[in-house]
Amino acid sequence: MGGEGSAAGRRALVTGAAGFVGRHLVGYLVGKGWCVTAAVRTLPPESVRVLGARYVAVGEVGPETDWVAALQQATHVVHAAAHVHVHVMRGGEDADFTRVNEHGTARLAEQASDCGVRRLVFLSSIKVNGERSEQQPFRAGDTPAPVDAYGRSKLAAEQALWRVCKSSSLEGVVIRLPLVYGPGVKANVARLVRLVESGLPLPLGSIENQRSLVGIENLCSFVAAVLEHPRAAGRAWLLSDGDDLSTPELVRRIAEALHRRVWLVPFPVGLLRAAGRAIGRAEEIERLTGSLQVDSAPAMSELGWRPARTVAEGLAAMIASRASSLPSGGA
Length: 331
Fold this sequence. Notes:
The protein is of the alpha/beta class. The protein is 39% helix and 13% strand.
């Protein structure tokens, strides 16, 4: 494995290593000299594996997953695996989220403790706090207020981790994430990019909100920091790029990265929300029109962390990567 000599005592297991966040984390940590084991549901082809990482198939994540082979010699764990169905924002079966997110996390924490792992970093969601920040940004100490199955399962997973930590020597770290973007991202961000590319007028010009987001490079650098920082353990941290944007401003920055012009048409927000309800996309429209800000100041003031990239740099990297992956002559 790459960095074997320099990484003595720094051996990380990354779960969900085939996903968007997991793939980036594996590559980033290998590059920082960690010996990394990448846990995946099924082994991917050699051509898409990160050079220097050891891949282990663990099957479905849940209350009966056997993590022992993946945990061999691991000193640290980053738990990025989660049930995040593409239709999660429109509802979903609570049992699916509970099985993977809550019970799967509890199982991993228990076996990590049994295997002598020092610290487990759990990637949670800002949806634990709620769906919309009102008078001030969400803070880690706020009373949790999840409103859907995904948010509830992430809160339950956090609580399961803390229970294991309380009864063992395992140290826990929770990171509640807002929207994560970067090269290879799919779902909502990819749809927004396609809308900007279409050149169609977008009825978003009247939206006056503020949304926090975090680029994948910034997330990876923060994970690397909290894996070892002595003051990170035992707490939940909120993370962002530190540059909150309105939806119209985000669209403009995506257009700038695409070198496209965008036409933002003023349109009453109330009518947008009514249209969303009428077509069964109320929550999607709410994310475009509502505010969701997080307070990431403690990450900087208490841990000395700073974002590795600005929003502009992160969006440019995302668009550049997307363009390079298109077929020759593709659009």
